[in-house]
Amino acid sequence: MSGALDLSLLRRWPDVEAPGLVAADAADLLILDESESARAETGPDEVTVIGDSYGALTLGAAAAGAEGIRVHQDPLSGEAALAANAKRLVPQATFTSLPLDAALVAGARVVLLRLPRSLDALADIAATIAAAASPDVVVYAGGRIKHMTVAMNDVLRGSFERLDVTHARAKSRVLVARGPLPQTTLPEARSGRSEGIEIRAYGGAFAGPRLDIGTRLLLANLPETAPGGTADDPWIDFACGTGVVAAAWATRHPDVRVYASDQSAAAVASAAATMRANGVSERVEVVRDDLLARRPDASASLIALNPPFHSGAAVSDRIAPRLFRDAARVLRPRGELWCVWNSALQYRAELERVVGPTRQVARDPKFTVTVSTRR
């Protein structure tokens, strides 16, 4: 069993909380149960957790006695939720949040992994473990069966000699990987080029090294001139992903300063690599932040946003309004939020209410671009 922790007590906060959005599920419990005997044989600093949504795996392992757990969560909101849940439920837990790199898994003998949706993300995770973890490492990679594919088995076999598949339980399953393949190397960013921009993407970054159709429509309609663009009033690429908008702004406008923000670790690493590839790193500040928390009120004249609508594997219409509210907070009076969104989501009324007067700038069969002026 998973120890003394009741996973139903976990919360998603500060991420979106709503009916149907859970902080832990049967896959977390199955990963903990399948790995219990292996974890019992580990010492301090020998357990790593990757992709732990809100702390179920980390705190479940800590409650059962694991110490010095190293953790990587792609969304910054996940790190905050883990810290908050630990404080409430397992205050004795010892863990450290780290990037997806060699230090995360060096010497690890057990890795608990929630399978990501992206095969590229899984490939990067598997390669990192195989390249830097202990030779006797065992990886317990689990998820809900409806989100798992046979291709995930093939990806893990690309980095490990042996792969076993557990019996299904509660519509969940665990893949157990052993025997890191020799000469596996740490992952590098994938490369692409579109609209004159070099794009770099690590596994898990939205759209990979390509220009998604929503961002393409937004780029084609952004204003050629706008107030701001200075160090004190930078143009902001909010939820920047691989940083295509920020890189385009910086290359098209050689005197402009840009601020690119995303809560995804993969996105921020990708955006930083994109800036380097385009030679604009000195004029684009790339930060990992939940919303625009680092930005003062009324500090920007121009924000571009392609808001996500997934929270993990779940689709939610509550994510974008949070971003709209923080954009409104950061915009100066008469500042503009340029936003692209799936037309079926009908965000215009929400933008009018939260930000200010909103007009349609462009529309294609799937997406709408609007500009909202801060009251």
TrEMBL record:
Keywords: Methyltransferase, Transferase. Residues 198-370 form the Methyltransferase small domain. GO terms for molecular function: 16S rRNA (guanine(1207)-N(2))-methyltransferase activity; 23S rRNA (guanine(1835)-N(2))-methyltransferase activity. SUPFAM superfamilies: S-adenosyl-L-methionine-dependent methyltransferases. InterPro entries: RlmG_N, RsmC/RlmG, SAM-dependent_MTases_sf, Small_mtfrase_dom. Its EC number is 2.1.1.172, 2.1.1.174. It comes from the Bacteria. The keyword Transferase applies. Residues 10-177 form the RlmG N-terminal domain. This is Class I SAM-dependent methyltransferase. It comes from Microbacterium plantarum. The lineage of its organism: Bacteria, Bacillati, Actinomycetota, Actinomycetes, Micrococcales.
